[in-house]
Amino acid sequence: MTPLASPMKKAMASMQGYLEFTKLNPHDEWLPITESRNGNAFYAAFHTLSSGIGIQALVLPLAFTALGWIWGIMSLSIFFVWQMYTLWLLIHLHESPSGARYSRYLWLSIATFGEKLGKFMTLVPTIYLSSGTCITLVMIGGATFKLLFNTIVGKSWEDHNETPLSMIEWYLVFTCVAVVLAQLPNLNSIAGVSLIGAIASVSYCTIIWVVSIVEGRQSGISYEQQEEVSRIARVCDVLNALGIVAFAFRGHNLVLEIQGTMPSSQKHPSRIPMWKGVKYSYFIIAMCLFPLAIGGYWAYGNLMPTTGGMLTALYKYHGHSTSRAILGLTSMLVIINSLTSFQIYAMPVFDNLELRYVTKMNGPCPWWVRAGSRIFFGCLAFFVAVALPFLPSLAGLIGGIALPVTLAYPCFMWIVMKKPDRYSKMWWLNWILGCLGMTLSVLLVFGAVWTIVTRGIAIHFFHPK
C-alpha cells in the first residue's frame, strides 16, 4: 500500500513476462553480443548501414559489363527484393514460440537442422563472412591508407623510392587502429562507431558516383563485350557477375546478433524495432548501390578497373582533374568505414572466442582475457592478409559457398520452424526460393572454379601489392 507498491508491482509483472517469453542462455549476460540488451531501432539501423555498405559496392559496375543494362538492373532489383524477404524471415525467426531467442545465426541453424547438420551447413560460411571480411578489410584499409598518404604528400616519395612505409606496414597501421577500437566491450557499445561508419559509407559512395557522372563518360568506352570468348566462358562471366551482385548484399550473418542486443517481451517483441531499423537502413543502402552501379557503368563502361572498382577508376581517370581535397576525403571516408565495419564483423568472432572461456570457467571473461583475445584475432587477420594477399581473388568461389546463408537457408528455416501449411503460398514461396538459392550457389561455385582454371590467378605469398 506504499507509494512504491504500484510501480514495483508493475515492474515485477513486466520482468516476469520478460523472463517467461525470453528464456536466456545462462551465458548470454557474459558474452559481448548479448551482455547489453538496451538496443533500439536506431542502433539496428546504424549497425546495418555500416556493415551493409562496403567496398564490395564499388565493384557493382563490373557486373554490368557482363550483364548489360537491362539484365544488370533487373538482377540488382531481384536480389535486393530477395534478400529483403530473407531478412524479414530471419527477424521473425529470432524468437521462437517457446520463448527461446536465437541471437546467433549458428544457433538458429542448429535449432533448425540439428547440431551436426546445422554446423556443417553454417559454420564455415559464417566464419568466412565474419573473419574473411575482416581480413579483406585489413587489405583494403591498408591500401587506402597508402593511397591517402600519396594523395596528401604527392608521389614524390615514390618517384625517389623513399616511401616511408611498405604495404605490409600500412596493413599494420590499419590493424593497430582496428584493434584499439575493438576494445569496446560489446555490440551496443559500438553503436556510435557504427553511426560514424554509416555516415562515412554513404558519403564516399555519393561522392564517387557524383564525381564520376559530373566528369562525364570516358572517351572510347563501350557497353559491348569486345573480346571473343567461348559460350562456356560467357556463361561463367555472367555467373561471376551474379555473384558480385549477390555478394553486395551481405550482412545476414549479423542480423540475428544485432537483434539480440534488443530487449523483448510479449507486448513489445524485438522484431518490431528491428524490422523498422532494417527497413530504413536498406532504403538508404539502395539509394547508394543503385546509383553506384548504374552511374559507374555509364561513366566507365568496359574501362572499369577489375581491382578496386570505382575507387580505382576515380583516381585513374579523374586523379588530375579532381580536387586533391575530394580525393583525400574519399580515401579517408573509405578508411573510416573499413575500421567501423571491422568492429561489427569481428564481434561474432570475439563472441565465439569468449564463449569457450565462459563455458569452461562458468563466469565472465576478465578484462585481460577479453583484450588478449581481440589482440590475437587482430594479429591473426593481419598475418593472413600478408601471407595470402591473393585471397580477394577467391572471393567469387567462397562467396558462392556462402551465398545460401543470405538467400537459401532462411527459407528452409522458416519451413522447419514455422511449419506453414503444406502447399500454402508461404510453403511454396520458401521452397522455391530456397531451392533456387542452393542451385544458384552451385552455379556460382562452378563459374568461379572454371574462371580460376581457365584464366588463372596470380598467387604470391607474403608479398602484398
Automatic annotation (TrEMBL):
Subcellular location field: Membrane
Cellular component aspect of the GO annotation: membrane
Keyword annotations of the record: Amino-acid transport, Membrane, Transmembrane, Transmembrane helix, Transport
Domain of life: Eukaryota
Signal peptide: none
Transmembrane segments: 41-63, 69-93, 165-184, 190-214, 280-300, 325-346, 367-388, 394-416, 428-453
Gene Ontology biological process: amino acid transport
Classification via InterPro entries: AA_transpt_TM
Keyword Metal-binding attached: no
Domain Amino acid transporter transmembrane: 38-452
Main location: membrane
Protein name from the UniProt record: LYS/HIS transporter 7
